């Protein structure tokens, strides 16, 4: 879950996004107001202006813009990026781990200079405002992206629970497979981005990529799932912080109050609309998480498990819960681990554990946003693969270490499973600080996604840059946090809720959507033949044919047919796993509700016996 980090990316000002949103909204509104005979026709990217000149309309979601047009300008942008001078430091391995803060980013274009495709007589001032605003956002190096992808919140702390429900062998095998596929998915997102993104038509999110390859419905699907994931992430963090606070308070404070405290904190901190000043906090989150991991491992190695929270542990779903039941003398069974799949009575418990492992690779949802802010998106691959390797090694080490010492008593999140109060409190404090940073950032981003794509676009709400938009923001922040709190607090099983998020959202963004986007991109790209393409001087797009013939030529193109075929199988496997995960998580929650397991709307903490 790497989402919060993109707000700290090498100095780019998030408020520029608001400016581009406003310009785009104004232009889209202007286009909608044109009558049919004034709407852009054969010259898809131009509109007539007095004096015989033309002015391009750079609108992020213009249905008249073709794939060939996006592809043409993307090649122009890639050429400009390659021409940018590289420092010696940028080419070294150290630039991955210690990103430079002195790089000024992409050089802005001189309005007096014409790029390829700028015909005579064009009025380019508006174009240069647009493209320079896009350039101003592209300041990140590959080192910054490596750092941001590893800025995780919930991933590492759910992994010990995953190993506890899957066992040593299956856990290691599945986590390794998920890591390899996550790296492959990163490549599948990178290639279409490189062929569709440009200064004229920048890609800023999964939704933009879906729109350009499949249309409006795919963009809305991506945005809805992203909004749901971020909303539930906020709720998850509120509940996990509530559990941590109840432990710190030695269960003397009513549990629902502990959760409510963090929701109120979100009400207040969430009033910040632009998150530029949160940047250093977001960067600190990765180090805070590492400190929490080391404290937790130290506590697990030198103190027994937290037997009081055994009912919330992985052992509750193994062998009917007998492995966590104390005997007549009140002595709990010893820590036990399993080399193979533990006996959970059905596959549900193991599948739920696999969903926790998938949670560790949930950052793919924002890979397009990371690339959108990079000075050279070409460098994203090395940064992403290095980050995935870093996550794989350290998360695997942490998960196996905690499982080895705590076995069936492992709790999700794992820092709640320490029994020594002093170590427990230290870990909880660091976890709460890191999580509240994440919750505020998740809430801010999630609400902006919902506001800009639902309220502004569908209900004509005022943009956030206007006075009316600012007042609406003030009013809906408490509503957003209240909904997140209500959803999470009403669900009695924390691991079940994280499994729902993983199965319905994270898994698709990481393993289903990347190959889906890749197939569409490769088909469109390799279906082009000699004479096809976009003519920048006339604005016309030429295609020699269409329909099934064009699709077949693109899908079975030389050198890429095997990747398209592999991606079809990849999509099928991801959908099957998602179906299993959804069924398992729903059944887990159903069992929790039927057994009257406590929700968060009570005073007794789920960790208090």
Automatic annotation (TrEMBL):
Spans through the membrane: 144-164, 170-190, 221-242, 248-269, 281-301, 347-368, 380-405, 425-450, 471-491, 497-523, 561-586
Source superkingdom: Eukaryota
Keywords: Membrane, Transmembrane, Transmembrane helix
Keyword Transmembrane helix among record annotations: yes
Subcellular location: Membrane
Domain Amino acid transporter transmembrane: 145-524
Name this protein carries in UniProt: Amino acid transporter transmembrane domain-containing protein
Source taxonomy: Eukaryota, Fungi, Dikarya, Ascomycota, Pezizomycotina
